[in-house]
Amino acid sequence: MPDQVLDDISHRRYNPLIGSWLLVSPHRTKRPWQGQQEAPSKIKLPEHDPKCYLCPGNTRAQGDSNPEYENTFAFVNDYSAVKEEQQEYNPEVNKDDVASLLLQAQPVTGRCYVLTFSAKHDLTLADMTTQEILPVIQTWTRIYASHLSLSHPLKAEAAQALERIPPNPHGEVEPPKRQLRYMQIFENKGAAMGCSNPHPHCQVWTTSTLPEEPGKELVEMTKYHGGHGRHLLEDYVKLEMEKGERIVWQNDAFLVVCPWWAIWPFEVLIIAKRHIRAIVDFTDEERLQFTEAIQEVTRRYDNLFETSFPYSSGIHQAPLDCTKDEAETSWFHMHFYPPLLRSATVRKFLVGYELMAEPQRDITPEQAAAKLRDCGGELYRKSLG
Length: 385
Hints:
The chain has helices at about 100, 130-145, 155-165, 210-230, 230-245, 285-305, 325-330, 355, 365-375, and strands at about 10-15, 20-25, 75, 110-115, 180-190, 200-205, 245-250, 255, 270, 310-315, 335, 360. By secondary structure, it is α+β, with helices and mostly antiparallel strands. Helix 2 packs across helix 3. The mean pLDDT is about 90. Pfam families: GalP_UDP_tr_C (PF02744), GalP_UDP_transf (PF01087). Pathway: Carbohydrate metabolism; galactose metabolism. Belongs to the galactose-1-phosphate uridylyltransferase type 1 family.
């Protein structure tokens, strides 16, 4: 067990992945709550919604019609955050000019995709079996592989992955016109996390720049590898497996853990146990075991408060265009950031001190892991009438 005193005193914890600190205040879980409460998700959705712009056969906002797909369907977002073509912007940088130093901007181009998980409007990943989730992982793999640079250190592995995974006519996307730097695969689930459509889906944003969060992680993982000759997440996996305090679930290939430095109440990391640099490194068995890990996390979330649990999740892996050192330093992992704190209606807010000083949490990661460990078994709503 960790030092028992940490269950009762305020303390800071270090996040080695991004080189930051957070405040932990476990005694605050006893305070009464009279603030905003979320409405629990109890709406029964139809299997097909004729008004949904993601359901098979329906017309989307810009007029395109969806095919009659069966599982995954990928398309360029009708309202992309970044675009491939835009006006050029190349400002001159003058180190003696204050405006050049303080008012910096750089152009970002790219392409944003939407990817459905299922043709059924009323499902979530928690409802789906591992075999139903597998096409999602396969499509992520094919999209990532198709966007790698020609000189990428994982190009051979990507080619092998494409040979092993059957193509999906509705899940294929055309490669971008210009080489892009990074691909962020993420899901926003639930209205509490800003999701505007309940149809099970994720987004894939590809950009010409390396975004802030994976960029910080790459810097810290590179530092750690250079200073110790080992991988940061390799050591962290071994440490968590030795201690067992924050482990939620594991199989042969992946560890599911509430990380020591978690900010969100029931934050979870899925970490590869061996050195997997990107999704194209998976063996067929690891691909299936990754679906098991995702299914375990999402089902336990729903069982925790017996609600359709909101979260934002995202994969961090080797950039699309990178050096050999950047690829070798990368370690595949997936973040889950859920906002619920005490129940299906009480959420965590990152405000005040969190915005002005540093992140803060109440329930400890060890307490969160214990609660999630106890939420295994059948999805709660399958036993409801």
